[in-house]
Amino acid sequence: MFTPSIVALLILLLEPASAGPLSRTPRPLQLRGPPRSFSHLRADGIFDYDWAHSQSQLVRAKYQHTAAIASKAAVLPNTLTVNRRASVSVPLVDYIQSGLDLEYYGTLNLGTPFQQVTVDFDTGSSDLWVPTLCVDSTTDVLKPAFNSSKSSSYEQTIEPFQIAYGSGEVVGTIASDTAMLSGFRVKSQYFGAVNVMSPQFLNDPASGILGLAFPQIAQTKQPPFMQQLYNAGVLDEPLFAFFLSRQEQGAVLSIGNTDSTHYTGGITYTPVTTQTYWEVQSTGSVVNGKAVQPSFKAAIDTGTTLIYLPSAATAALYKAIPGSREDSQQGTGMYAYPCNSNPTVAFTFAGSSNEYTIDLRDFNLGPSEEQGMCVGGVIAMDMKDTNGEPLAIIGDEFLKSWYSVYNFDGPKVGFAKAR
Ligand SMILES: *[C@@H]1O[C@H](CO)[C@@H](O)[C@H](O)[C@H]1NC(C)=O
């Protein structure tokens, strides 16, 4: 009879001898693909449509990738035991470029003893991945990477890990190790040990990504870090929450409770409609106080900078702002509106009549080439959720105004006025 290790060996032998992701020999961290611009404004201060286009490509690829995984998902085991209940807060760094809050990241401890890696906390995906130096690697890396040969608890599987992101990709192997976030420790956290990545991630101040959505879209087919804490019953309250700062530091991820210093009034919840992303039902947009249809499903996504709506909903929204027009020449799904019209743009969600306004400082992405016109922060993109329904992606541009709560009990997403 085959023991598991013999089976593993056989699988390895079936691979070509040079198979990169499956090889146990030294694996240098490689770079593939074009670099990425981090500024949304050109040198002359005008909005850069090329930047917007590459951002859109990243978002599109992320959602196509995760939707494909969900179609193959299986039920996952509960792997943790309860020790104690607690709540913690994780300070986040706001990465600001040309006055735009591009992403928020923080520190994760990985391995035994702990090594610190920085990760972008992303409610729009469900995998943890970090650049990893594998056994005997002597490559010089240009950003902090996890050195697996320094960790006594590191275990590597033979399963490949790969995510395509439009113009780039990350490639590696599924591994597991001990992970700790501000005192919450998960003994065996599966992650993508990545050894090939495109320069767009190399330029990124965060080393990797920590996905906070549901296990159904995890490529590792293992519970995400936060899901493990919830399954184990160690959270004071079954939730985590984000305060995202605007053009200053102070952003915070709270785990196990909400941070009342960062919101006013009550938290109003809307149910999660499909447990893949933190996907909710928006009942439509509101422009200058008038309701605008159609409605749409929306993924609430801390890992996306801007806001993307189905093209019909986007067209209707800008139609309600007099003088606005599509930048059809650019073909990016972007619109411009008269800067002096100062529109009030809001969304509504199932379960309440609250109107959630996007702050004009965030909605206005900067001057368009046409005098007096500004580029609007709602962009047309036709994405589908895992049920084939049109899906909007509501990112940091919205979440800076609205403290957001991700509650496993429901599950449901809550919003309260951020401060
Ligand atoms: C990774 O750790 C090993 C073992 O401690 C060490 O020999 C090697 O130099 C480290 N690699 C890098 C790039 O730091």
TrEMBL record:
InterPro entries xref list: Aspartic_peptidase_A1, Aspartic_peptidase_AS, Pepsin-like_dom, PEPTIDASE_A1, Peptidase_aspartic_dom_sf
Residues making up the signal peptide according to the UniProt record: 1-19
Protease as UniProt keyword: yes
Key words of the record: Aspartyl protease, Hydrolase, Protease, Signal
UniProt record, GO biological process: proteolysis
Entry-linked SUPFAM superfamilies: Acid proteases
Source species, domain of life: Eukaryota
Pfam families per UniProt: Asp
Residues annotated as catalytic: D122, D301
Protein family according to the UniProt entry: Belongs to the peptidase A1 family.
The protein, known as: Aspartic protease
Organism expressing this protein natively: Dacryopinax primogenitus (strain DJM 731) (Brown rot fungus)
